[in-house]
Amino acid sequence: MERSAMLIGQLRKCQVLHFLIIGIVNTSFSYGIYAGLLFVGVSYALANLVALVTGILFSFKTQGRLVFGNPDNRLLGRFILSWGLIYICTIIFIGRIIALGLDAYSAGALALPLSVLLSYLTQKYFVFRKSGVAAHPTEIDRV
């Protein structure tokens, strides 16, 4: 019992786990906006744009505050820049996978881990860093 309590305590401190959970919440929020707008008759292009913008803003606040402990709104520019770079890297990766003969659906699915990894690293070390170091390192992060 004591060992499982220690494991639960470590999981609560695990920044990567928080990042993944909050990422699922953010994705659900963005898709909910998109689907809701489609439901009320908004075109898919406009629904996607609104979902993208609100999703980026929502994700900036939730990742910054709940994962990295840094609610500084002045970092929004860095956040947007990091997602621009992640987008470029992901598109290049997908293009190379397609060139190997896979379809765009499979290539996009294979790109997801890369996108998540790049997102975590850029947010931890570029967007939400404090004084040149990452915010709130945990025991797991130090290993």
H/E element order: HHHHHH
**C-alpha termini separation:** 25 Å
- Residue stretches low in confidence (pLDDT < 50, at least 5 long) are 133-143
Structural class: mainly alpha
β-sheet strand percentage? under 5%
Count of separate structural domains: 2
Counted by DSSP, the helix tally is 6
Q: Tell me, briefly, the overall form.
A: globular
Radius of gyration: 17 Å
- Overall mean confidence score, pLDDT: 86
Total number of strands: 0
Q: What helical percentage do the residues reach?
A: over 70%
Question: Sheet bearing the most strands, described?
Answer: none
Task: Provide an overview of this structure.
The protein has six helices and no strands. With about 140 residues, it is mainly alpha-helical. The protein folds into two domains: about 1-65, no CATH class; about 70-135, no CATH class. α2 runs antiparallel to α3 and α4 (about 75-100) runs antiparallel to α5. The longest helix has 25 residues, at about 15-40. It starts with a helix and ends with a helix. Residues about 135-143 have low confidence and may be disordered.
Short description:
This protein has six helices and no strands. With about 140 residues, it is mainly α. The two termini are about 25 Å apart.
Summarize this structure as a short list of keywords or feature phrases.
mainly alpha; 6 helices; 2 domains
